[in-house]
Amino acid sequence: MSLQVRDLTIEIAGRRVVDGISFEVAGSQRMGLIGESGSGKSLTALAVLGLLPDGATAGGSIRWNDRELIGLPDRELADIRGDEIGIVFQEPRTALNPIRTVGRQIAEAVRIHEHVSRRAARERAVAEAARVHLPDPERIVDRYPHQLSGGQRQRVAIAMALACRPRLLIADEPTTALDVTIQAEILELLQSLVDDDGMSLVFITHDLAVLSKIADHGVVLEHGHVVESAPVRRLLTEPASPVTQGSLRDATATLWKPEGRS
Q1: What's the burial of 105, exposed, middle or buried (CB within 10 Å: 0-12/13-18/19+)?
Q2: Where does the record place the region Disordered (predicted)?
Q3: 93 within a domain of the structure (yes/no)
Q4: Structural domain includes residue 234
Q5: Count of the separate structural domains present in the chain
Q6: What per-residue confidence (pLDDT) applies to 234?
Q7: pLDDT > 90: what percent of the chain?
């Protein structure tokens, strides 16, 4: 199972915002896309699943297990989303449907891809809620997103993405909106689930310190271009690009910040 991105371009309203990005994610590899806002990392992730905003067009090649995804009809992409490739978005408050229980949302992909009964889907939702360590899963699946904390909503989003046991998980800055303690818990959870399922991971972040905790290889983006691609260990010890060097300074400042200071 592998993802190959070659010379990816994305244009919005005639402006090229991603220009020639290439990388590969092999089976069970944990890779990170890192860059500041506007670098093209989230658009790249959306392009993989054919979820680019209206008016955006993608060129180049995105191959999943030797199957070209660019230009694939949406109906065929829908068969891949959630089943073979899962995605966790940055802000679960906007990713979750406010008028549906979280249990129904966790079970949705299962019902679509595995064609199970409503009762079986609910049982699966409870099991998935327990798997991501949500408290009292039998009851929490009947709650609505606004009744959960930010960390609990993100666990719901992870459960939704992994319910069908995809072979690749894309996590788009899943800890950015959370406080530091919850961030650490979510990172630990993701790492455990990825290891347990033996899946590949594309982790998107602007924070090299966060990336170092979950990925083994990093692709650094700036203004839609790849400026560096290397093992995370090398990015931390021998950053070659000014962008990575700046990220390392920020990461070092964060890691060595005295307790009690914000």
Answers
A1: buried
A2: 241-262
A3: yes
A4: yes
A5: 1
A6: 94
A7: 78
* pLDDT score recorded for residue 57: 96
- With bands split at pLDDT 50, 70 and 90, how would you rate the model's confidence at 260? very low
Instruction: Give yes or no for residue 16 having a pLDDT over 50.
Output: yes
In a domain? residue 33: yes
> What is the residue range of 51's domain?
3-255
The span from the first CA to the last CA of the chain, in angstroms, equals 42
Show the tokens assigned to 57.
């067009």
Tell me if 261 is assigned to some domain: no
Quick one: average pLDDT of 193-202? 94
| CATH number for position 29 | 3.40.50.300
Residues 6+ apart with CB under 8 A from 75: none
